[in-house]
Amino acid sequence: LALLREAMVSIYREQRWADTVTIYHRETEKDTNGKTVTTWTSQTAEGVFYGLSKRQEVNDTVLAEHDRHICRIPGDQLNALERGDVICQGIVEVEIPQNASPEKYLVGVEHVTADIVSDNRQLVRTAHWYAGEA
Questions:
Q1: Mind listing the pLDDT tens digit for each residue in 84-93?
Q2: Nearest residue to 131 (alpha-carbon basis) of 87, 68, 89, 71
Q3: What are the tens digits of pLDDT across the range 47-97?
Q4: What span, in angstroms and rounded, lies between the C-alpha atoms of 32 and 108?
Q5: What is the longest distance spanned by two Cα atoms in the chain?
Q6: For residue 56, what are the CA distances in angstroms to 49, 59, 67, 134?
Q7: DSSP per residue over 34-89, as a string?
Q8: Partners of 46 in the β-ladder
Q9: Which terminus of the chain has fewer Cβ atoms in its 10 Å neighbourhood, N or C?
Q10: What b/e sequence results for 76-112 when a residue is b if at least 16 CB atoms lie within 10 Å of its CB, and e otherwise?
Q11: pTM higher than 0.85 for the full model?
């Protein structure tokens, strides 16, 4: 039974975790004048799930649904992921200048800014990073 469960997890990951993403990681530091300097480094990850999740909210008496982007990145593909990092679908080779906003440079690229980040690398069979919109 354990071997069957493990095989099913492998098939699921191969079929559903088949995307490639580019992650723009934000790093900040203080310069010699004490001002905050933001730099963006990029990294590509493969074997990723990038998709949509339904979210329901109640406004007064109306049930409203909307999609939100989510991303699951295998734990061995990435060392760090933080709120504010930007995840782009596919391989993106855009340089984001120092102190610049990624949205200005990622026009026409499907991307999401990570509002929610969870480190699930401790999971035995599906170790991954989770990122999504709030």
A1: 999 999 999 9
A2: 71
A3: 999 988 777 677 777 777 777 889 999 989 888 899 999 999 999 999 999
A4: 36
A5: 62
A6: 21, 10, 9, 12
A7: S-EEEEEEEEEEEEEEEEEEEEEEEETTEEEEEEEEEEEEEGGG-S---TT-EEEE
A8: 20
A9: N
A10: ebbeebeeebbbbbeebeeebeeeeebeebbeeeebb
A11: no
For residue 25, what are the β-bridge partners? 41
Q: How far apart are the first and last CA of the chain?
A: 37
- C-alpha to C-alpha distance for 122 and 12, rounded to whole angstroms: 19
Cβ atoms 16, 50 nearer than 8 A: no
pLDDT, the chain, mean: 86
How far is the C-alpha of 35 from the C-alpha of 32, rounded, in Å? 7
Predicted confidence (pLDDT) at residue 122 exceeds the cutoff of 90: yes
